[in-house]
Design a protein that fits this description.
This protein is of the alpha+beta class and 395 residues long. It has 13 helices and 9 strands. Helix 5 runs antiparallel to helix 6 and helix 8 runs antiparallel to helix 9. The radius of gyration is 21 Å and the shape is globular.
Length: 395
């Protein structure tokens, strides 16, 4: 990835150091990810060694401050790096995004100096991996549905009991940030806190057999009297989690961009090379329009992601912008990947080429880190709240 290959709107948010980093990411993706993507898809596993290599490159601490051991890059560079990786293997890209924005991100935002020194440094270097455990059978976007409990057995020492589902890096992580109910608020609601739990305290249940992103470690695990320590003040877990999800949705949107670009590039090449009825597929107007629609939607998705990255890099609130970007990019990616498969015909439906993998992988982005329906709730609530405030000022 060179300046010439990066669209102008992205360049406005990138420094020379970030452009140099992205060039290294492109080389890493082409040499360390692309040659093994099919094999990892079939084995449904990503080797730990590739995460170690990614850590040495700086991919596991992209936006963390340099003073903490991270790269100190902005969110445009982060999104472009995730996009580049997703073009070759979305499972690896989504694992990296979750580690950066959720696992490491939560500890960076709320952890104390001792936790930063003992744990965060290893996470940013890639010697350790972090998972982030919110989802349960009755809790996901409804974070208030958490049933995992936390009991303070002695001052500063906690035990967790519960079950977590669909946790990215749930079996392979070295530490997990777990959301658990630690009591009740003054209003009688669940008090949700975040806890740091080491791998030895986790009881793995299984790797969930998913439709797409098969190489990603999507897992279930139990917590039975698991030793844990608070991350941040008691009762602040839910608020910090929601802030982390704002960043996480940028990552999911970036994965969507990568999948959509890979699928469109494959469709363009196939349309130029495949002949039917004495013509190239590219000569049929119906397919030309499909390709045009793909490009328009992809550019629109990139523009929305750029809005969110600009605010995130400046440290400004970007809840609605991240939701808008994630909603549109994920749904656009599904449409683009579906069209690409259609353009490939029967060949696209086979596992001989990765187009069907792009199609399967893209579907998760409409569900993970808040479904499309939840994003519409977030967006509409923000719109209505803003309009109500404006009307109140007028009155």
């Amino acid at each position: 990835m060179t300046p010439a290959s990066i669209a102008a709107p992205w360049l406005a948010q990138l420094s020379p150091a970030e452009i140099a980093f992205l060039k290294k990411v492109a080389h890493f993706a082409a040499t360390e990810i692309a040659p093994h993507a099919d094999a990892w898809e079939k084995s449904e596993e990503l080797p730990r060694a590739v995460f170690m290599k990614a850590g040495k490159l700086g991919l596991l601490g992209m936006t963390a401050p340099r003073a903490r051991g991270g790269q100190g890059f902005g969110y445009a560079a982060y999104a472009l790096a995730i996009r580049e990786l997703a073009k070759h293997q979305a499972a690896f890209a989504i694992d990296l995004a979750a580690h950066n924005a959720l696992g490491s991100g939560h500890l960076l935002a709320a952890g104390n100096p001792a936790q930063h020194k003992r744990v965060l440094t290893k996470l940013l270097k890639g010697t350790w991996l972090a998972a982030w455990a919110l989802t349960e059978p009755e809790a996901g976007s409804d974070s208030g549905g958490v049933q995992t409990t936390a009991t303070e057995v002695s001052p500063g020492k906690w035990e967790l009991n519960g079950f977590k589902r669909y946790i990215t890096l749930g079996r392979s992580s070295d530490i997990v940030i777990v959301m658990a109910v630690s009591g009740q608020t003054a209003e009688g609601r669940k008090e949700i806190s975040a806890f740091l739990v080491e791998r030895a305290e986790i009881i793995p249940v299984r790797k969930v057999p998913t439709c797409g992103l098969r190489a990603s470690d999507t897992a279930e695990f139990k917590l039975v009297k698991a030793k844990a320590e608070l991350v941040g003040p008691r009762g602040t877990g839910q608020a910090t989690a929601l802030a982390c999800l704002d960043k996480g949705r940028i990552g999911v949107a970036a994965v969507s961009l990568g999948l959509a670009r890979a699928a469109l590039d494959a469709a363009l090449k196939h349309a130029l090379n495949r002949r039917q009825f004495g013509k190239r597929l590219a000569d049929f107007q119906a397919l030309q329009f499909m390709l045009a629609d793909c490009e328009v939607e992809l550019r629109a998705a990139e523009a929305l992601v750029l809005q969110a990255t600009a605010l995130a890099s400046r440290g400004e609130r970007h809840t609605i912008e991240s939701s808008v970007a994630k909603l549109y990019a994920s749904e656009a990616a599904s449409r683009i990947c579906s069209r690409a498969l259609q353009i490939h015909g029967g060949y696209g439906y086979t596992r001989d080429i990765p187009v069907e993998r792009y199609w399967r992988d893209a579907r998760l982005s409409e569900i993970g880190e808040g479904s499309s329906e939840v994003q519409r709730i977030v967006i509409s609530r923000a719109l209505l709240k803003g309009t109500a405030a404006t009307l109140a000022d007028i009155r």
